[in-house]
Structures
1.
Amino acid sequence: MKMKKKVPFLLVIMLLIGTVLAGCSLKGNSTVDNSSKDGVTTLLMYQIGDKPENFDVLMENVNKKTEKEIGVRVNLQYIGWGDYEKKMSVIVSSGENYDIAYANNYVTNAQKGAYADLTELFPKYAKEAYDMLDSAYIEGNTVNGKLYAFPVNGNVYAQTMFSFNKQYIDKYNLDISNVKAYKDLGPLLKVIKENETDVMPFSVGQGFRVLPNMDFVLGNGMPFAVDLNGDTSKIINQYDNEQMKENLRIMHQYYNEGYIAKDAATSNTEYPLNSGTWFIRQETQGPYDYGDTLLSTVAEQPIVSKAITDPIKSTAQAQMANFVVSSNSKNKEKAVEFLGLLNSDPDLLNGLIYGEEGNAWEKVGENKVKLLDGYKSNNHMAAWNTGNNKIVYVQDSITDDQIKQRDENIANATSSPILGFTFNTDSVKTEITNISNVMSQYLDGLNTGTLDPDKAIPELNEKLKAAGYEKVREEMQKQFDAFQASKN
Amino acid sequence: MKGGPNYTVKKKKIEHVQVRTFNKKTNIFFNIMVGLFAFSCIFPFLFVIIISFTSETSLLTNGYALWPSEWSIQGYTYLADLKDQIIQSLFITVFVTVIGTFINVAFTSSYAYAISRPNFRYKRFFTIFALITMLFSPGMVPSYIVMTNMLQLKDTVWALILPMALSPFNIIVMRTFFRRQVPESIIESSRIDGASEMRIFTQIVLPLAVPGIATISLFAALGYWNDWFNALLYIQSDNLVPLQYLLMKIQSNIDFMTQNAGLSGNLSGGLAAIPKEATRMAMVVISTLPIACSYPFFQRYFVSGLTIGGVKE
């Protein structure tokens, strides 16, 4: 009798011990190891995005090479697109040890001192990569006179484009050669609306922004802009600008005519790039997209685009993909050396961006590749946030003329008047938060055409005024004037 | 006998019994009210099930509909392609829930029992100790540092279990429960019979406390099942991702994509990895169904258990 009663209790204890042991063996396979053995340093690197499926193979190739050349192995950890900001901000504020990371909130964190100062390390340990960078990258990433970033050399300038789904252009024989602004889209959208019931004429959703020919100091969600068509020495509110208002009125008209989804302001429905569910979408393109080549490749269908803004080398483009070295890192020199190698060694970089050589691609000619059947969207890394686009081989469909054109375009693109200007928000922090709250009430509604700009904008301006807009703008203008004076 | 008191008591005839209840009309009214409320609770879930069986094209053109123009099991067949990841995540979730609940209940009930005993000298200190963590939270960053730097638990399954292994709220609930449901005299009499403290706890007190334990088990199990935040903070490798975090990751990726529309060329790799609407709803169904199905088994205890923490002395 007594024995019987004890049995369940003993069982429970055994179960507990058993599971504890089982739990111990349930460890992740990516043990974080920064130690160096046999003179080989292991760098911990955080990257944004999704792991490619053949990640282990790709990294083994990299590590073999880097270990031989500079005595470094890389432990690359991916953090998902949506989680990156949250996770990195915890890692940064807890002072956790890492070596290299894809930068998020670059300016804020650099001002906080989270990143190592690379002003001297960069040219010293990664000279080759440094010399290949466009000067706009250095200018655009300089915070308080110091460079904290190792920028990826890529689309140094960008233009906002309307991208058209070519199948519908061919089907209805549409002419897009005259499209230069939002107002030119009406007749085209109308054709699709009337003939294709299953197609959304204008792919607009939450997060869509009407982009006039302006550059923005605090991103396109905040009302601090410089009008590139007007006086470039003045900070203005883009929503108080006639060019912008006109665009918004047109969007509102499109919305009323049903060219835009009724729930656009709140919906996050995607119209997949590789489907026929959309006719026009707004995209950003730069020189390394080689016209519509890149977009058409990833869309798996032909796409044609028309630019609506000037090519401008802006701060946003310069900070597109920055790698930073943690100020807590014990291997700063090695980290920069590794980034230098990654950004100057074509074999190393192309092995990541196109995947395995021989399986996914083969080299043709001096700097071109032919994609093989093994090339799939999830077995290589993206060029824009991995390494120097200048040494990435191009696809064999791209002609030498296109490459020449690319380099000319880069040389001809002008710099934005606010390139390199970082606004110090210390004295107006509360106002900035208030303004950002006001903006979030109107941004999606106005930009998707859901709200009537003639009613909403006066309302918005009223609220901005109450939130202390003038004070911030004056402070910004003051700092901007000083910035301009220092440049001349 | 004469002149004695008259013992026959005149009984009052009861004409009308006033039963404390609603009259018929009110009853119907309240039934409808409660019915509507219950429906509003269950409706979203029904809707999710319907969406998960809607075809993708009908979702794109018509949006959500209660009776979609085209039914499809596409969502679930796509999930079947993902089955390695989903089964792995489901395993992690179940593992964490079972082990976590067990550890949580073991710790919580023993802690609560100790501070419920009047002859435990430090009971006041330990009660306040638990209460303080209930009222003040140290915030995310300090706990992150403790977990990663001090305990080195980053990217282990323990990072999902230990942060929730002890719940101060449940401790207080159980303490009250032990005080009220387990008479001191039973414990005393067992001691007189020569039982050790351990034996009193496991053989006398615990069997008496089953309703309370079932209640806190349910709380703990729900907490573990639904937890994704610890995974967000501490989990890096794919084979340790619990189901809820898998869902959460997809959702936050979608948000990111919509915020950065216009970079399709750059983000195409990420876009390709996002499952379609119906698939997402199918995942919600799969992750909710097990816990919803286990609810009725707990309910018996749950209703009686809810009142036990009612009075916190």
2.
Amino acid sequence: MQSILRTKSARIGATVAAMVLLVAIVLYLGDAKGFGAVQYVQLVLDGIRGGSIYALIALGFVVVFNVTGIINFAQGGFVMSGAMLAVAFNNLALPLPPALKLALAVVFGVVGTTIVGALMERLTIFPARHSHTLTLIIITVGVYIFMQGMALLIWGANAYSLPAFSSLALEDQILRSGGIMLKAQSLWIWATLAVVLVALYFFFERTLLGKALRACAINRRAAELMGINPSRMSLLSFAMAAALGAIGGVVLSPATRPIYDMGLKLGLKGFIAAIMGGMVSSPGAVVGGILLGVLENVAAGVTRAGFKDIFAFVILILILLFRPQGIIGGGERGVEQ
Amino acid sequence: MQREGWRRHQISIGIGVFAIVIFLLGWLEMAQPMGFEFSDVTGGIVSFDTLVRVGLLTIVVVGLNMLMGHAGQISLGQAGFYAIGAYVSAIMTTRAANRGINVLFPGVIREEWWWWPWLMILAGMVITGGIAYLIGRPVLRLKGHYLAMGTLGVGLIIFVLFREGGTFTGASDGVGSVPRLCIGSFEMWPRERYYFLVWAVALAVMWLSLNIVNSRVGRGLRAIEGSELAAQTMGVDIEKFKLQVFVLSTVYASIAGSLYAHYQTLVNPTPFGFVGSLDLVIMAALGGLASIWGAPFGVGIVYVIKEVLRARLQTLLRGAGGEHEIVIFGLLLVLIMIFMPQGLSYAAGKAFGWLRNLSRREGKTEIDRLTEKAT
Amino acid sequence: MILADIGGDVAENTILEVEDLKKAFGGLLALDDLSFDVKGGEIFSIIGPNGAGKTTIFNLISGVLPTTSGEIRFQGKAINGLKPHVIAGLGLSRTFQNLQVFNNMSVLENVMVGRHLQSAYGLISASLRLPAGQREEREIAERAMEHLAFVGLDSVAATSASSLPFGKQRTLEIARAMATEPKLLMLDEPGAGLNRPEKEALDDLVRRIRDRGVTVVLVEHDMVFVMGIAERIIVLDYGEKIAEGTPDEVQRDPKVIAAYLGDEELHLI
């Protein structure tokens, strides 16, 4: 197959044809279910919401991979940890106004998880830093299992809840317009994503630490020779990834009830989004995340809800096979390690 | 590698010894001299049922050992292929009227066709191998983390497909009323008989795999691990080798899955998800990723830990999903991969070698040491 | 002296033809319209300053890297675009500049991998220990030992390959490549890192290999070594051929001198 698509124009042509075909299939299936424009818009909007979370998680993967070359399978655990810690704090009986308590819970969730991320790096990655790729993969998998197990032990198998951020101030949580519903929490999610992106931009472009981190990603040896300590950078990257994951988890919690095993699927989908972005590109990760969210939601909407996860993995396999450098490109490191 | 004298049959002898142990355990359970029961010995922690399950998963893990330890490929979706074997057997042999084959062709399969389930085991192998071949060609070109994700995705897709399969696959409830295996009128039941069947297959699979590892094929795999570049230019067709080992490992998983179906008589999607694949990887890692001899021990230890934890933790915790032991597993996995990536069998091998050295004047020859590493 | 059987319908005795070979890495043109022929049974050498593209040529010929354009013909048959293991099967073998010894195996096993193409038994025969496979395995080991003896490493056959000193590891690679019974052997900087006596041994080995009928193509940096052993040489600079001929002709070529030293006369030997 790859030989037929050798010329760039052939590839572009094939991609366009495939996209047109997909849209046609979606419309056909949606028609059978009696979908009108409203339903499609709703699916897309909900998809963007989910996709924003994937984007946040994907950023965590990208940061760690860029600096250490490791794919951190425990990233989903950070998401879960952020959510659960926030819930735990919020459920404490403290003499505080609920809005303040919620804000502190959010902070607690993020900061607590950042510490967890740093601990993970020091205790499990650092001692094995010279090991084989396979070993490191299994280690991060082990860490994830451990985190999920701890969550199960501490909080049991129940689903918890965090109040929607706006619910403490506003009565009506849902904005409606012409049949389309938008939860207020979605606005919080998008706003958070935007703020995070801006903050990351400033960090990487304008601060010395951020530049040091980037230097490490580009050429570890050279960075070392310039006096940058790669092991500290590794620690920093894991802490950042943990923070990013936790932010995603916390801002997602009001919309989907936090539970001990929520990290698995979210982590996987965040990873898929990161791959879609080429694994080395932050804007790519964001685009990938949102695109993934929309695609899987629309696909599940026109077929069956239970199939939602399949679409994410089908997308994964398709990307790995046909465009491992990501949709944006720039991830040549991707497949040929 | 060719060794002289009795060493040439080292593998067969080892398997033979193993077989004797297995046989003795089974005989003890069957004959129950002095009312002896296996579960009594272990204080109710490990039952005979566990031994059968260890045998089943050993078959899968041996394949995983070959794939991960010798061909250097990762599979985080092996449970999916285990599932295919189990479901093919279950769907095609079930007696439940509203499930499986009976949904499409009611009454076609006769109960007196004792050979039918065996044929379906074979069919499962072919189907699984075929799917693995198709998926394997593109997926195996990936490397490292990407291969891990690819196999994970494949495993999960298989899992979801079975879960959403309607009455054909029984959806979340699964397919029940799977008949027992028989040869003519000789039923592979009660449990002790099935135990012998399962372990006969497990030992055969181990024997075959050990032979492969010590042959030109195994050497080719080790060459690929040593240097893909050099292996290629020495004429080793890397893609073909990786694919062959991958397909073989899935066929093993399929056999085990089919045997599982006829043991459990009910097949539902639960054990075949990501956690299932993870369990398998942990078992392989514990026993030593490259060690086929270590496979049954890796499986066995994981089971023992699970049972022990289940017995002890039950009293401590107020009813949750029963997956608490995964905390220990996570910890165990991390610790092993940091400190002892070659797993327990390597440590055991070293200890054994040290003991052997005590009784020899000059210790082992170089060839001995090297060929031990190879197995 | 037994010459290897050379087929092909091209100019008699030409075993390898490279025609207008071009290789670009993104914007960097590593090789630019390179053409040369290698005659059967000769010791041919490619030299040139660092970065001239020498190893890239080997990578292209052995199929490890794809060509950007141009053709490579081995015994008259076009081989660019073929997979490395297929090219190896046609009789082309090589060693590597940065050692690619199988560190996870013994010395003997390394060479036994070289016998891969000369053996055939597969999964079924291996798993069931069929007698045919067992016989082949014995043969593989025996032949491999012969090749080890040829290079003088038979005494260390059972040691781990990674425990050999550097010079002997280089020799091991040669033994392994020879075990494939190639018609053409490409040696990539075989002398790099060797001391004087080792280089003399290498010189002797290359001659013995040629005497067995194997054509040798040598990429080298050490001028003294090359001038002493090569029968024909081409000189590369920035991916282009700037000179071709016998050692004497090449030494006196002003373009070669300029490329290496910048207008000073080249004093070799």
